[in-house]
């Protein structure tokens, strides 16, 4: 029973879209209406509001970390196994991709996935983050950095901890992240992908009613 309610709770935590919430708080357009139409930190940055983008990044990452950290922290008290922790990791990630609070229209999951990895193990998250930063710095494409980091994340986990239930959760997240970036992959191949920091003319401040 603990496994069920923890998995549901993780999904609900993941369903909080900080891109939408922060955009409303900062008075900028809904990120689902401009740029890539993806409610994530990179698209919020296209509005030109760095504060909103930073808070979105922190929020989306923190919710992934929190769900996993709580599961690990109370693992003994709740008598749950590694399989439950793996389910929690996937559930919070799925909540971000398909949030129940926002008509199942969510982001691509990069920040939330990083939060999950940091929750599973700080070294795992750090290795993945360094990979993302290196590719992003070299090529200035957030999507490319995310795809490369997602490719290496399962490798890092297997190298550090071997084959465990959480490894399959990391594999699942990496596969889903690649799936959510399918359009970006096409744009990268066609040379049409937007670089980090590029602004969208559609990201105007909403009109007050």
Automatic annotation (TrEMBL):
Catalysed conversion reaction? an acyl phosphate + sn-glycerol 3-phosphate = a 1-acyl-sn-glycero-3-phosphate + phosphate
Q: Which domain of life is it from?
A: Bacteria
- Associated pathway: Lipid metabolism; phospholipid metabolism
Q: What is its EC number?
A: 2.3.1.275
The answer to whether keyword Lipid metabolism applies is yes
Q: Does the keyword Coiled coil apply?
A: no
Q: Which SMART domains match?
A: G3P_acyltransf
GO BP terms, alphabetized: phospholipid biosynthetic process
Q: Which GO terms describe its molecular function?
A: acyl-phosphate glycerol-3-phosphate acyltransferase activity
The main location class comes to membrane
Query: What topology in the membrane does the UniProt record assign?
Result: Multi-pass membrane protein
Question: TM segments?
Answer: 6-27, 84-102, 114-135
Pfam families per the UniProt record, alphabetical:
G3P_acyltransf
Family of this protein: Belongs to the PlsY family.
Function of the molecule: Catalyzes the transfer of an acyl group from acyl-phosphate (acyl-PO(4)) to glycerol-3-phosphate (G3P) to form lysophosphatidic acid (LPA). This enzyme utilizes acyl-phosphate as fatty acyl donor, but not acyl-CoA or acyl-ACP.
Assembly information from the UniProt record: Probably interacts with PlsX.
| Name listed for the protein in its UniProt record | Glycerol-3-phosphate acyltransferase
Gene field? plsY
């Amino acid at each position: 029973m603990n496994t069920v309610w923890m998995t549901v709770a993780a999904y609900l935590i993941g369903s909080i879209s900080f891109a939408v919430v922060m955009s409303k708080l900062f008075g900028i357009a809904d990120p689902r209406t401009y740029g890539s139409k993806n409610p994530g930190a990179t698209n919020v940055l296209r509005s030109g509001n760095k504060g909103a983008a930073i808070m979105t990044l922190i929020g989306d990452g923190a919710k992934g970390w929190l769900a996993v950290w709580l599961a690990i922290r109370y693992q003994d008290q709740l008598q749950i196994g590694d399989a439950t922790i793996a389910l929690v990791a996937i559930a919070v990630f799925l909540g971000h991709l398909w949030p129940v609070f926002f008509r199942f229209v969510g982001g691509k999951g990069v920040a939330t996935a990083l939060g999950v990895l940091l929750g599973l193990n700080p070294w795992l998250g750090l290795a993945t983050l360094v990979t993302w930063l290196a590719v992003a710095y070299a090529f200035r494409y957030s999507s490319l950095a995310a795809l490369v980091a997602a490719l290496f994340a399962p490798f890092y986990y297997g190298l550090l901890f071997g084959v465990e239930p959480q490894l399959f959760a990391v594999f699942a997240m990496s596969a889903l992240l690649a799936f959510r970036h399918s359009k970006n992959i096409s744009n990268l191949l066609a040379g049409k992908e937007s670089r980090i920091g590029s602004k969208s003319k559609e990201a105007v401040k909403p009109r007050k009613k």
